[in-house]
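User: structure tokens for this one?
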Amino acid sequence: MLVGVAIGFSYNWKISLVALGCVPFMVIGGAINTKFQTGYSDVDESAYKDANLLAGDSILDYRTVASFGHDYLIVKQYDQLVEGPVKTSIKKAQCIGFWFGFSQFVQNAVFALLYWAGAMF
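Assistant:
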């Protein structure tokens, strides 16, 4: 990284200063994006554990479930087990989507600023 900064200053010190000033914005945008995406799958797996157990048991014992005619009860119970985690996942996905969009905006805004500074200098 230091070699890249040195090369940048040797070619054009003005643009290099602008680029160095933009580094914190790039780092903050990337850190926010990383923070929200880590651990997302772990939360989903634990929330869906009971629903997966119900689905697995009903598939293994399908003949018993079908013989009693309780297919609709299994589906209704599965929907109830999944309802809470789905709402939580939707809210978290919207939050992650917003911050991912923000980090992409910051990255493209920095590139636009650097192109503009290059054209001006």
